[in-house]
Amino acid sequence: MGLLFMGKPLAWEDSMPYLEYIREHGVTQFLNLWDRFKDREGDTLLWGDEVEYMVLSFDADAKNAKLSLRQAEILANLQRAVTDLCTNTLADLASVPTFHPEYGRYMLEATPGSPYTGSVPDLLSVEKNMRYRRKLIRAELMPHEAPVTVTSFPRLGAPGVFTDPFHDPSNAQASHSLFLPDEVTNPHVRFPTLTANIRRRRGSKVAINLPIFFDVNTPRPFIDPTIPYVRNVFPEDPEAMNGAALPDHIYLDAMGFGMGCSCLQITFQACNVDEARRVYDALVPVGPIMLALTAASPAYRGYLSDVDCRWNVIAGSVDDRTEEERGLKPLKHNKHVIPKSRYDSVDLYISKDFNNRPEYNDTLVPYDEDIYKRLTAHGIDTLLSKHVAHLFIRDPLVIFSDAIELDDTVSSDHFENIQSTNWQTLRFKIPPPKSPIGWRVEFRSMEVQITDFENAAFSVFIVLLSRAILSFGLNFYVPISKVDENMQRAQRRGAATQQKFFFRKRIYPADTPPLSHSTPSESPTPSKRSSPAVSSLDIHGRLVDISNGIKVNGHTDGEHVDGHEEPGDVAGHESSSSRDPPLFVAQSRCPSPWVAEHMPVKEEYEEMTMAEIISGKGNEFPGLLGVVNAYLNSLNIEFKSKQRIRAYLALVKRRADGSLQTCATWMREFIRSHPAYKHDSVISEEINFDLMNALDEIARTRVVSDLLPTDYVGSKDDDGCL
Ligand code: ADP
Ligand code: MG
Ligand code: MG
Ligand code: MG
Ligand code: MG
Ligand code: MG
């Protein structure tokens, strides 16, 4: 959640004199980092996930599941437990997961103690590591509490008691919400200040309206009886009655509804800045696809909604744009009309590759022209300059009075102030000053899943996809406007099976012949070390039969590139000493500009079902799983490891073809088939209690055949964690 400075954060009115200063010095800091790291080469794949949890407090007598507000205490105890582990069991600090605070006071975030390497054993340790984190958290909870990986808590802001301890929502000084007490927010001054400053900058409370899910007994029109329309505590109270709350919708009015949602994020390191830019771009169109496949949030403020995902809720919950910026009034005080919230999907492709045609950046993307000029004058290319100048149209939201004048040669805080409050589907992470960390890309669209098996599966899938992208030089470009459209479709109820999505038809480099993609080798016999015959592409774009051993150990052409080390073993993860090769892309493939003529952009993509996008369509389009399997087949991975990876990939495939449900669909059906459900879209305390208990149980022990493959491997045999 960004740096937690000490000292006094400035109220919005007091920040005014410093906004330009922070922006100017933020750019200076970026330029300093750029000069220092632009030529940095040879970083290996390191990667890690972030899983967010809600701590629930179960009241069995009242049949109510509540959000436990003990974050600070639990984190302190976890810190102590981690220290004890290191001293008592001599565990390496790097092997012990790291726990972080999050926006919600009922939330925790956990990451591996050190990033994973590109070794297959590391890949296969992800699930175990996630289970270990859950176990460590659970050990610090009270018997009636549990860590649950649920994306949105169905009764956050509903009438009655939804926090433990109870707090009255009528005194929310930061948010002025009608529904949420400030006590749901992490009390560190950064968070209430962020909340209040978004409201003050915007000039009103945030307003999110999610379409209600009309069940057979839901009144039409639906006028929400739980909104206190006539409350008179804060000046914004009448907003609900004056148009902010729409009929037939669930109305949400505070940052906590969005930033109080959980998610699953993956960060991986690239070998240099250009590779980071390439993989960033390739993953932009994948963002909405993975959002739909991981959909896990069908319920808000006590109601079933007609959407399955959190995305628009968070986007709306931190939408600090003024009326002028939203285009509701002519520009007078503000510089730009801004089409999107600072939390939304990526606006610009940034790779310098020839594949990145200017036509793909086809939406209105305002940027700060002075900053753009400064960056280009410094020698930075127009694409990256525009990316940064676009991020910098936003104001810094929280400024600490004792951290304004900084040494720009050693600090990146002002840069990060803007960067880390641009919450997009992908984040292009700059190497921090004074650290061994390289250029990274963060994939941010996914919703957190109920089980560690699912969270590991989606993490592993994305990491493998990123390797396939680099290794084969894949081209996923479609116009940003189509990605934006896909983002909206991805959130609709049942999108994974009901919607079509724009996707590129030919994804192999234009300078290679059409690839008749091989279906994944399903079941190599255990005795056979190498994969069955499969065609793949070498780095020159030639089709090669990789079963003949042309590819050795994952090196595309058997040669080492200077500066690349074999990714070694990082303390804390399983040793990579087995025969499995590293997920190593010796030289990422970058298609050459002189070969192909471009076809009209409109002919490059079409609408596909999720099953087609994942598993392929016709002879030309191999699907995302097709390329992941081709990549896997290019490595000589041991049979047992491959089987475990295939179990993860099977989950992705089955979510896409509808033979398994998304978490959202499963939760929606659980609610709708609950005996106490009145088919009126209302999720009572009792239904919520049973649902939250079920989620906890599934994460621990229960196999639910609609949601999970009954035969999944890997989660039971490799640890005694639970
Ligand atoms: P943020 O909240 O800013 O996204 P976190 O520190 O919470 O960042 O999570 C970052 C993730 O990146 C963690 O999973 C961590 O293991 C991983 N990570 C750390 N160092 C590297 C690195 N050098 N390359 C790639 N990933 C890294
Ligand atoms: Mg984090
Ligand atoms: Mg974070
Ligand atoms: Mg961090
Ligand atoms: Mg987080
Ligand atoms: Mg993150």
UniProtKB/TrEMBL annotation:
Lineage: superkingdom: Eukaryota
Keyword field contains Cell inner membrane: no
Source species of the chain: Hydnum rufescens UP504
Enzyme class: ligase
Record's catalysed reaction(s): L-cysteine + L-glutamate + ATP = gamma-L-glutamyl-L-cysteine + ADP + phosphate + H(+)
A Pfam family annotated for this UniProt entry: GCS
Keyword annotations of the record: ATP-binding, Glutathione biosynthesis, Ligase, Nucleotide-binding
Alphabetized GO MF terms: ATP binding; glutamate-cysteine ligase activity
Protein name per its UniProtKB record: Glutamate--cysteine ligase
Pathway(s) annotated for this protein in UniProt: Sulfur metabolism; glutathione biosynthesis; glutathione from L-cysteine and L-glutamate: step 1/2
Compositional bias ranges of the Basic and acidic residues kind: 554-567
GO biological process: glutathione biosynthetic process
Transmembrane segments: none
Cross-referenced InterPro entries: GCS, Gln_synth/guanido_kin_cat_dom
Entry's EC annotation: 6.3.2.2
Region (Disordered), start-end ranges: 510-534, 551-580
GO cellular component: a single term: glutamate-cysteine ligase complex
Family stated for the protein in its record: Belongs to the glutamate--cysteine ligase type 3 family.
Biased composition (Low complexity): 513-532
